[in-house]
Design a protein that fits this description.
Four Helix Bundle (Hemerythrin (Met), subunit A); mainly alpha; elongated
């Protein structure tokens, strides 16, 4: 796999953490780590991760990356619209999870659904959006974007 453009590394680092969450939500926790983790605990962890990491991450993508991609590659508008819709779907699902955290019935299904959507979304960005950006961005635009992303989300490390 080719090396990611340095300006996108903070987002890719956060994508890695998002994929770990998606895996935990769809497959479950490893048996050697909190095997008694309840759906309510998973919901609380998920909501906390969403608020701390994904809210600023989505804002950085929607306010910084997506407009830059649209400027350098206007044909990407359809992909960008799809990714924005997925952000909205993820937000709504997290809201439902937060509201239903006191109930156990559908919480597991909601968590699993979130894991699936989150994984699919991250893979779309990594496999479609980022290569498109990398193929068309100038070094000057990439430098500007790198500064803006770092100011918005840091270096992507916890």
């Amino acid at each position: 796999m080719p090396k990611r453009h340095p300006s996108l590394i903070p987002l890719s680092r956060e994508h890695h953490r998002g994929l770990l969450l998606a895996f935990r939500l769809t497959v479950g926790l490893p048996k050697n780590r909190k095997p008694d983790d309840s759906p309510q605990e998973q919901a609380a962890d998920t909501v906390r991760f969403f608020r701390q990491s994904l809210v600023p991450h989505f804002a950085a993508e929607e306010d910084i990356l997506f407009p830059a991609v649209c400027r350098i590659q206007p044909q990407a508008e359809g992909l960008l619209t799809q990714l924005k819709h997925e952000h909205a779907d993820i937000r709504q699902l997290v809201d439902k999870i937060e509201q239903q955290a006191a109930e156990d019935g559908s919480l597991g299904t909601l968590l699993s659904s979130l894991g699936s959507i989150l994984e699919r979304h991250i893979r779309s960005e990594e496999r479609q959006l980022f290569p498109l950006y990398e193929a068309h961005v100038s070094e000057a635009e990439a430098a500007r974007l790198a500064t803006a992303l770092t100011n918005a989300i840091g270096d992507g490390l916890p």
